[in-house]
Amino acid sequence: MSDRVCRWGILSTANIARKNWLAIRNTGNAVVTVVGSRKIEKSQQFINECQASAPFAKVPEACGSYDELLKRDDVDAVYIPLPTGVRKEWVIKAANAGKHVLCEKPVGVSAADVVEMLAACKKNNVQFMDGVMFMHSQRLTKLREVLDDGESVGKLRRICSQFSFCATDEFVSSNIRGSGGLEPLGCLGDLGWYNIRFTLWAMKYQTPQKVSGRLLTQAGRTGDGDVPMEFSGELFFADGVSASFYCSFLNENQQWVNLSGSKGYIHVPSFVCPYYGSEVSFDVNNTKFVTQGCDFNMEEHTRRVAIAEYGNSSPNAQETNLFRNFSKLALSGKPDESWGQIALQTQRVIEATVASARQDGKLVAVEA
Fold it and tell me: What was the pLDDT predicted at 368?
């Protein structure tokens, strides 16, 4: 293990890895040393293109196989954006090779897969974390403060969220997220993971007692199985709080959360990918309905809370914080298992909503 920086290997040349290449470069405590692909030419092309945009002082090396990358002694941690359908194999191989693991979401095809991954990471004393960037934004720190102040929202009763984008006509045939073999959870795994994770965060990681799910639209490739293209769900918690979410590949960009309570509500815009700019924010709304004689007035009382944090591509952006925080844990030699448990909880909630959808929305209990 390097005493100074965490040395990263990127296991795949998936497009999201370009953003995270830059994030690693901006951390100050990490570098990319190796990029692996099934073809070394593809790895080298990826490195050349990323170096032209965001260069490291020492050019990372290219590997022509994932196994070759995992055998290297100049890699402390691996970022795995491989398709979900093949991810478990490589997470376990990475852990057994003594590499810390940051992987994309959904973490696995099933909760059982995730249990196996976490067991391998624990056995080898390596850090595991999923790539939910908003978990590392300073906006959440401020949001928790306001949510818990007793006045801005009061008693939390309801959480609603939506995350969607409108895919192209060729999406199902050309993108891995349209493949039942590679990404069987479709929009629920790709987008709904964020809706559910935010809800669990807001609820301080209480597990919902029961959930329901509705598979609104599905599509897929011939012989490869259909995937969810549009999905909605409801979560029910023991203290009476309920949460709804909607995720879709069929509606244009929307990503928002409303947290409603007895005294007001908070609206969080762009909760996954913050709007471009130097601030991230949310609005606190304490609307008042005032009557005076024959006048019935709905008064707007909105307070915007802003945090100085760039939306992307900056040393204080959430994706940079993700890799900086992970690198600190990796370099410490003391893995924080709570990150893996949060990922497992998210997977279990998703799995329960799928089970419900297969039973026409019947309420399903969630494994704690």
Answer: 85
Read off the pLDDT of residues 149-176 as tens digits, 9 standing for 90 and up.
999 999 999 999 999 999 998 898 889 9
Q: Give the E-state strand segments of the chain in sequence order.
A: 6-11, 30-36, 61-63, 77-80, 100-103, 128-130, 156-166, 210-221, 225-236, 242-248, 250-261, 265-269, 279-285, 288-292, 295-299, 302-308, 364-365
Residue 237, token pair as written in the block: 């918690």
| CATH number of the domain enclosing 192 | 3.30.360.10
Q: Percent of the chain at pLDDT above 70?
A: 99
Question: Are 298 and 154 part of one and the same domain?
Answer: yes
Q: Which of 70, 105, 134 is the last residue before a domain boundary?
A: 134
Q: Which of the 8 DSSP states describes residue 114?
A: H
In a domain, 325, yes or no: no
Give 274's DSSP letter.
P
| Band of residue 3 on the pLDDT scale cut at 50, 70, 90 | low
Looking at this protein, which amino acid is placed at residue 138? Answer: Q
Residues 196 and 149: their CA atoms lie apart, in Å, by 23
pLDDT > 50? residue 1:
no
Does some domain include residue 169?
A: yes
Q: Is 334 within the bounds of a domain?
A: no
CATH label of the domain that carries residue 110:
3.40.50.720
Domain limits for position 114: 6-134
Of the chain, the end-to-end C-alpha distance in Å amounts to 35
Contacts of 222 (CB under 8 A, 6+ apart): none
